[in-house]
């Protein structure tokens, strides 16, 4: 493992340069002895000319080498830091994720133009275009990159950046394309903070977002839990926002199946929000990930939920709206899903339920397609020609006609009867009754029992009287 030593944020003057050179010599010797590569570099941000405590830095280098690069040592130098065992690019991304409120389009364009390291350096100096300054000036002096990285490491998490293999390139590319077309839901995050054992890119390869109202009905929570369980059981990652109601039910369903789930938060991943879901948010990292574009310590805010919703839409190959009122935040996620070109689905509900009115609006407008089962969700979002729903027998079969209808009507709902009794009741010849009963059984309208024949539950469920 390579170990780096860098002066982050300082123009290295003569005294500092000499110290760097001295440290480089010692680090090289230590590196050779320990067989662990050590690199020493200096970045360029103004600092006062100070005497660098070389012995302290060397001690830190030795400690890091001894730990195989696992430790991170910090030695303050004026307004800058000696950082041992940290990646300069990751530090830059950590700083940029805090310096502007997402999605910050001007800052994102600036980072794309000059690169994250140079962008971070210039933002701290204030050497940026006016549009970038408008988004960063309030926080540019609030440099906490090392603290944030140390905190996420303490939580057992990490910062995932676009340069990582774990970055979900395809899902977030949809946000970039949307931004290029001027869509409000567009713009990929500069980095994401994650807690959990899962690989973000791998989990997003086959995933579905399940969202809905916080004030969910029992019907909605039951459907969301069933969907979460069934999708997870099928190896599909369940993405949601960890809110009360539909979100929580979907996460719990996935966890009950022992499958993967991703919770996307509108605050730092170190904050349990809502507080009532603290245990749920503690369980999710063991089966998936808790994700946020906000650094540790960021509190939830109303506008952050709207911003967060675009990530939920992007990380799912499709979105299912289980329940939503006409003004529900889930409809914002639905709008982002449609804008990103993802599959939008909605669950029909009782016409008397206000919590399903938003779903009915989406269905009536043609924006969403109706789904009522896990199989239908997987067919809508899955692999072309592979994840198909098996046709259910009798879906297009109506009630029998003529003599068959008379025989069917003669069957009791609860108790069986002999063919002879059915013949008398229906007025159909016995031989014809004996021929028709197996035909009715084949289309799930009749059922053979010990006492003879009765109507099947399938026939009853179809509303037959």
TrEMBL record:
Secretion signal, residue range per the UniProt entry: 1-21
InterPro entries hit by this protein: DprA, DrpA_SLOG
Keyword Transmembrane: yes
Sequence ranges assigned to domain Smf/DprA SLOG in this UniProt record: 160-380
Keywords: Membrane, Signal, Transmembrane, Transmembrane helix
Transmembrane segments: 52-84
Pfam families linked: DNA_processg_A
DNA repair keyword on record: no
Gene Ontology annotations of biological process type: DNA-mediated transformation
Superkingdom of the organism of origin: Bacteria
SUPFAM superfamilies: MCP/YpsA-like
Membership in a protein family: Belongs to the DprA/Smf family.
Protein name: DNA processing protein
Organism the protein comes from: Saccharothrix variisporea
Lineage of the species this protein comes from: Bacteria, Bacillati, Actinomycetota, Actinomycetes, Pseudonocardiales
